[in-house]
Amino acid sequence: MIRNGHRATGAEDRPGPEGRRAVRVWCDGCYDMVHYGHSNQLRQARAMGDYLIVGVHTDEEISKHKGPPVFTQEERYKMVQAIKWVDEVVAAAPYITTLQTLDKYNCDFCVHGNDVSLTVDGRDTYEEVKRAGRHRLEYEARNQKKEAKELAFLEAARRQEARQVESDCDL
């Protein structure tokens, strides 16, 4: 376990706002070639709780399920640790997220985008935690808003095109 230096020591034991128990959130992934999307995913996950733990998979697990990573696991641990919304990094996190993993780190739920994460044999890596109701989709609301904007744009473009056709016919 690697603690992030962005927060004071003991943050994991501090109560949440208004004295309630802190909500602990789990995210995991490869985090190879970390970019804005990864940081934004972790920012959104952190906003869903009080303490964010991020599991980073090993080179061996990534190679087995997805193909070889570009960065080594040690480099990826450091990259994720440097993201300010991450409170703690779990090195060598299992590729399949289980209730046992969430319980081991006292996490209330795990967060993942709506992209499907599969094992090499086609199994959903979040199947168990989804069935138990301890999985949250962080991108669902964002994607619904984005889709609504895209549909509105397409409808406006269709109306504009129809007006143009009508205008051309009037000539």
TrEMBL record:
GO CC field: cytoplasm
Organism: Trichechus manatus latirostris (Florida manatee)
Domain Cytidyltransferase-like: 26-137
Keyword field contains Phosphoprotein: no
E.C. number: 2.7.7.14
Gene3D superfamilies for this protein: HUPs
GO molecular function per UniProt: ethanolamine-phosphate cytidylyltransferase activity
One annotated GO biological process: phosphatidylethanolamine biosynthetic process
Keywords for this protein: Lipid biosynthesis, Lipid metabolism, Nucleotidyltransferase, Phospholipid biosynthesis, Phospholipid metabolism, Transferase
Protein name as annotated: ethanolamine-phosphate cytidylyltransferase
Family membership: Belongs to the cytidylyltransferase family.
Gene (name only): PCYT2
Pathway: Lipid metabolism; Phospholipid metabolism; phosphatidylethanolamine biosynthesis; phosphatidylethanolamine from ethanolamine: step 2/3
InterPro entries tied to this protein: CCT, Cyt_trans-like, Ect1/PCYT2, Rossmann-like_a/b/a_fold
